[in-house]
Structures are given as C-alpha cells and as structure tokens.
C-alpha cells in the first residue's frame, strides 16, 4: 500500500457525460500528479499540483480539468466524455515539487465510457 | 525527441530463472524509477535510482547516468513476478515521469 488513495476504483458512464475522480496523497506529501494509461498511448502525464497551485501541464485535453484543495486532496474532472477517454487514471504524490522527488502511485480509477 | 526505451518488450521465463531488463533514456535525468504493474493494474514502486546500485531481496537495479541506461535484475524468478515492468524518468528540464512502454514478463511454473 503506497498510502495514496483514489476513488472510485471503477467508473462506467456514457459518452457526453462528466465525471470526477478523487485522490488523497500520502500523509505529508504536497505534490499531486495525474497520469492516464491507455492501450494506445501508454502512461502519460496529465497535470501536476503543488500545495494547491498548478505547476505543470502535460497532454491534458481542454475537456479535462483538475484542482488541489486546501486539505491537499485533488480532483480530476473529465467532461464531454468520448469513447477514447476510457483508460486507467492514476494519481501520484511526492513530498516536494522538485524533479528529484520519488513519486508514489495510487491504485488507479478505471474509467469505461460506453 | 526525448525518449525512454525498454527492452525486451516481452519475456517468458521458467520459475527459478534470472533475467535482466534494460532502460535507455535520451537525456540527463534527475529521477529514475522502476515499477511493477501487477495483473490488477496497480503500479508498485520497486526502486528510486537516478544513479548507482540498489538491492531489495531478489531484485536489484543499476543506473549508469553518464551512459544513460538502467538495468533491473530479477533473480530466482517466481510466478508472482509476472506483470509489466516500467522504467520512468524525470528529465532535467521537467517534473513529470516519462514512462517507457514496459517489459511484459510471464513466469511459468
């Protein structure tokens, strides 16, 4: 158990819908990262937050947004869902915001868009 | 462009055999991590190893940063070692982990 929690574990929804994925980092970690794992794209970085502020963006679609709250948990919002958004979404956390910090991954949320 | 390449892509071993997985990366890194993704999809941290050598039980890893590669050694493999092994790096210019495509390992009884 990495100490990073994600809910829900599984999510099944229809095209055009909106969903929210939730992540709680390890105790004491200030950074949260979101990654997407799909069959065709592999594991890709989406976005990074540190202590409530956005620090870096990767291949995140405009239909997707995220935020980190004062208690440091984070939410990833996916809207106008398409079949291609079906994937495993991981949250990771690290102690600091620098590139030297080890990242620890949650169990993931498996999203299926029908 | 910036790349992380893993080899071999697939590996089948008999229980008890040893193996070496390789990760090549195209630029200087501040962070290199090895993960095991089990059949349930969980990503398990194996090593944080931007340079040097580490050992943890039957697993060990070596990163030669100056030559831009890392090796993961699995000795006396067990069926529970099956899954996908990922190498991921944070390049000097970034913060996010860049993942290779993984090595899919199957250990047979």
Summarize the structure.
With 114 residues, chain A is an all-beta fold.
Q: How many angstroms does the end-to-end distance of chain B come to?
A: 41 Å
**Helix coverage percent of chain B:** under 10%
| Outline type of chain A | globular
Number of helices of chain B: 0
Helix content of chain A: under 10%
Shape of chain B: globular
Largest beta-sheet details of chain B = 6 strands, mixed
| Main sheet overview of chain A | 7 strands, mixed
Query: Could you tell me the number of beta strands of chain A?
Result: 11
What is the C-alpha radius of gyration of chain B, as a whole number of Å? 13 Å
Report the order of strands and helices of chain A: EEEEEEEEEEE
What does this molecule look like?
- The complex is a heterodimer of chains A (114) and B (109).
- Chain A is built from no helices and eleven strands.
- In chain A, strands 2, 4, 5, 6, 9, 10 and 11 form a seven-stranded mixed sheet that branches. A four-stranded antiparallel sheet of chain A has the order 1-3-8-7, with no helix packed on it.
- Chain A is globular.
- Chain B has no helices and eleven strands.
- In chain B, strands 2, 4, 5, 9, 10 and 11 form a six-stranded mixed sheet that branches. Chain B has a five-stranded antiparallel sheet with strand order 1-3-8-7-6, with no helix packed on it.
- At the A-B interface, strand 5, strand 9 and strand 10 of A face strand 4, strand 5, strand 9 and strand 10 of B.
């Amino acid at each position: 158990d990495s100490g990073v929690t994600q809910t829900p574990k599984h999510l099944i929804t229809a095209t055009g819908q909106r969903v929210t994925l939730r992540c709680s980092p390890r105790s004491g970690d200030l950074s949260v990262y979101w990654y997407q794992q799909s069959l065709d794209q592999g594991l890709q970085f989406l976005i990074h937050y540190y202590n409530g502020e956005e620090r870096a963006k990767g291949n995140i679609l405009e239909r997707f947004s995220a935020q980190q709250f004062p208690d440091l948990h984070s939410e990833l919002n996916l809207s106008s869902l398409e079949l291609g958004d079906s994937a495993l979404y991981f949250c990771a956390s690290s102690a600091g915001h620098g590139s030297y910090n080890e990242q620890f991954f949650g169990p993931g949320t498996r999203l299926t868009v029908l | 462009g910036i790349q992380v390449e893993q080899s071999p892509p697939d590996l089948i071993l008999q229980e008890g055999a040893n193996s070496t997985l390789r990760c090549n990366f195209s630029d200087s890194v501040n962070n290199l991590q090895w993960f095991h993704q089990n059949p349930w999809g969980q990503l398990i941290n194996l090593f944080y190893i931007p340079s040097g050598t580490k050992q943890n039980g039957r697993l060990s890893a070596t990163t030669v940063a100056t030559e831009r590669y890392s090796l993961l050694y699995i000795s006396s493999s067990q069926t529970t070692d099956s899954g996908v092994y990922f190498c991921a790096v944070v390049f000097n210019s970034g913060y996010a982990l860049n993942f290779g495509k993984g090595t899919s390992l199957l250990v047979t009884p």
